[in-house]
Amino acid sequence: MASPAEVEAEAVAVAEKQVMVVGIDDSEQSTYALGWTLKHFFTPYASNHPFKLVLVHAKPTVSSAVSLAGPGGAQILPMVEADLKKITARIIETAKGLCDRKSVHDVKVEVVQGDARNVLCEAVEKHHASILVVGSHGYGAIKRAVLGSVSDYCAHHAHCTVMIVKRRNIKH
What we know:
It is a single chain. The protein is of the alpha/beta class. Among the domains are: 34-60 and 75-114, no CATH class; 115-167, HUPs (Rossmann fold), CATH 3.40.50. 49% of the residues lie in helices and 19% in strands. It has a five-stranded parallel β-sheet with strand order 3-2-1-4-5, sandwiched between helices. Helix 2 links the parallel strand 1 and strand 2. The longest helix has 25 residues, at 77-101.
């Protein structure tokens, strides 16, 4: 049993931990970024991790997913909502499973409806995060300009250090 002084010292250490927010979605890049982060920032420290880990998933709104459907889109709203819930549950299950396999159990998971760029920057503010981790899809300049890059947006707008994790291209 720990002495009161040890308990208090542990409480202070936990209170002083910085927050790391990791953006998660259903992409291979997101899963790779989370795995890389766990391997380099959490696993080496056993149960005394230097960061509090917050995983954030930006769930698209039903209206944004259906807006492309045009007239008659209202009939498919319930089906789209059900699909978005299933996808979100799968993303969370995958992320938690990866954390468990790396022995990282003290993880907070948040699902926030909205555009990933805004959701992640708002999560940084909400949690006073010192680091935001996002995966990189490796889009070229044209795709990035047309589709918009979450990592690029966050690098310019998040009020913390932004780490963009890219999978190395292995040349044969």
